[in-house]
Amino acid sequence: MSEKTLFITGSISYPNGLPHIGHAYEAIASDALARFYRLAGWDIYFTSGTDDHGQKMVQTAKGEGVSAQALADRLTPAFKDMGEILNCTHDDFIRTCEPRHIKSVQALWRRIADSGAIYKDIYKGWYSVRDEAFYTGDEIIEGEAGQKQAPDGSPLEWLEEESYFFRLSDFQQPLLDFYEANPNFIQPESRRNEVIAFVKGGLHDLSISRTAFDWGVPVPDDPAHVVYVWLDALANYISVLEYPDEKSQLFSKYWDNVLHIIGKDIIRFHAVYWLAFLMAAKLPLPTRVFAHGFLTVDGEKMSKSLGNVLAPAPLAEHYGVDPLRYFFLREVPFGRDGSFSDEAIVNRVNADLANDLGNLAQRCLSMIAKNFDGITPAYANPTAEDEALLALFDDLLPAAEKAMAECQIHLYIGGVMEAVSAANRYFANSSPWDYKQGAENENIERMGTILYCAADAVRQAAILLQPVIPEGAGRLLDLLAVPANARDFTALGKAGRLESAQILPAPVVIFPRLEKSAS
Ligand code: MSP
Q1: In 10 A of CB 51, how many CB atoms?
Q2: Three-class SS of residue 134?
Q3: What is the dihedral of CA 243, 244, 245, 250, to 10 degrees?
Q4: How far does residue 181's CA lie from ligand 1's centre (Å)?
Q5: DSSP-based three-state secondary structure for 423
Q6: Cα(240)–Cα(158) distance, integer angstroms
Q7: Ligand 1 pocket, residues with Cβ under 6 angstroms
Q8: Distances (CA, A) of 505 to 94, 377, 379, 454
Q9: pLDDT score, position 144
Q10: CA-CA distances (angstroms) from residue 388 to 69, 382, 425?
Q11: Which residues are registered as beta bridge partners of 297?
């Protein structure tokens, strides 16, 4: 198997409130990618964390009468726990207030400064605390009562303070050249176009330090300034790999092939600022940035004022972790916006998992239990239909890999689930029950072959779906007595074909039908 490495990063969340399903969505999607590539034999490093610094944290903490550190310490565990609750397999979780990160940000700053890309001046302009972003020119819109707003509607405040600046304007052409030479760097295409238009519109130098508060990484040799929260936060992607130790195992191995998974609202920071910082520091650039869409609730944007902010833990508790993961990943085309509703999750999960996959497994396993004493039947005298079914599943991997190479998670799942539907049609058309003992057409060998084919289809579907529904897929493989070393993608196709004459455990329902949440 290939020796490919890939560093998959989720963004690091602001711990200024509890996690909601938008955070959960990103964690689940990036986890599915990480799990998929591990099963394909890649060496994966997968991280996330919290973005503890910045003015937003200072403001929220002030409102609660606590220090920003205390606020971050209180809320960060909820983000870490969320990953565990949702069965995500992060290798590390970094907080930007950790010494290992602070050291790394300062090293990066020094390196950028050494290149001559930093100078000191006075910043006069508009700032959105909500976005932790500066806005200029025609991006600024007049809101109600003359309130200045960012394009996303967040309120702006006027800042005037001494600041260090980054010579972003010098990087316009290098960035455009890079996008052209690396057409897949920003995905999906719509985001790439948006970024290119922004950069072509002209880049202003960027204020990269603040003096109005001290909650942040002190600027090297000038501790009256703290590093701008986005420069600080973006550096997590290298601090978590032990930068500035470029010879470290982690940095040298994983900074080579990097996939950043982020939400569409923060594409500019990743595809413009982060690249330019790295270019200035003469560090290698990431390979890809994929921006996913936003989740709404019943079609409405989540907001505290609407009171519709959904926390993932109670949903996982009510519906189960696998159903929640499946719903997000199958229902929402990755890269587009999607809506969560009780009705949508119940419909989707009941149709796909309880009916299609669950019934296929349940029907063939219970017939094996009943008619073959729970022992895997033989694959004997197959028909063209039997062979076609096995071949259909044997050939699923290339399409899945192609979809995942473009982060089209929903398409990879869709491909597997189409095959599951075909397996259900095969099962119904083959009518194994017609051949049972005492029936007019009794033919136990024929019945066994049909059940064998259906069971092997379940095996391959379960192997392929482990990144999405890790627990349920694992339990299906348990029911088929598939050994632990025959569950990765090398076991797909003939290589891991079910062995006949295996004693199987008693079948149980793996994907029960869901009921709508009472709330
Ligand atoms: N701290 C920054 C990221 C720094 S990365 C170097 C940040 N934090 S956040 O908490 O506001 O958002 C964390 C992630 O969740 C971002 O990728 C963001 O796009 C995503 N989402 C926030 N709300 C979301 C939805 N409603 N739906 C889907 N994802 C959303 O931005």
Answers
A1: 27
A2: strand
A3: 10
A4: 28
A5: helix
A6: 34
A7: 11-14, 22-23, 25-26, 51, 233-234, 236, 262-263, 265-266, 294-295, 302
A8: 41, 14, 20, 17
A9: 80
A10: 61, 10, 12
A11: 300, 340
Interval between CA 123 and ligand 1 midpoint (Å):
26
Q: What is the pLDDT of residues 367-402, one digit of tens each?
A: 999 999 999 999 999 999 999 999 999 999 999 999
Sole residue written with tokens 């990743």: 270
Q: Whose CA is nearest to atom 25 of ligand 1?
A: 22
> How large is the average pLDDT for residues 79-105?
98
Q: What is the mean pLDDT of the chain?
A: 97
- Give the HSE-up count for residue 270: Cα atoms under 13 Å, Cβ half-sphere: 28
**pLDDT (0 to 100) of residue 359:** 96
Under a CB-based contact definition with an 8 Å cutoff, are residues 324 and 316 in contact?
yes
Long-range (24+ apart) CB contacts under 8 A made by 99-102 are 100/239, 100/242, 101/217, 101/235, 101/236, 101/239, 101/240, 102/217
2, pLDDT greater than 70: no
Q: Which residue has the tokens 């590539």?
A: 37
**Confidence bin at 1 (pLDDT 50/70/90):** very low
Q: What is the pLDDT of residue 234?
A: 98
Which residues, including other chains, have CB under 8 Å from residue 108's CB and lie 6 or more apart?
231, 235, 238, 243, 244, 277, 281
The tokens of 482 are what? 């598939």
What is the DSSP track for 286-354? PSEEEEE--EEETTB---TTTT-PPPHHHHHHHH-HHHHHHHHHHHS-BTB-EEE-HHHHHHHHIIIII
Residue with the smallest CA separation from ligand 1 atom 9 is 13
> Rounded mean pLDDT of 317-321?
97
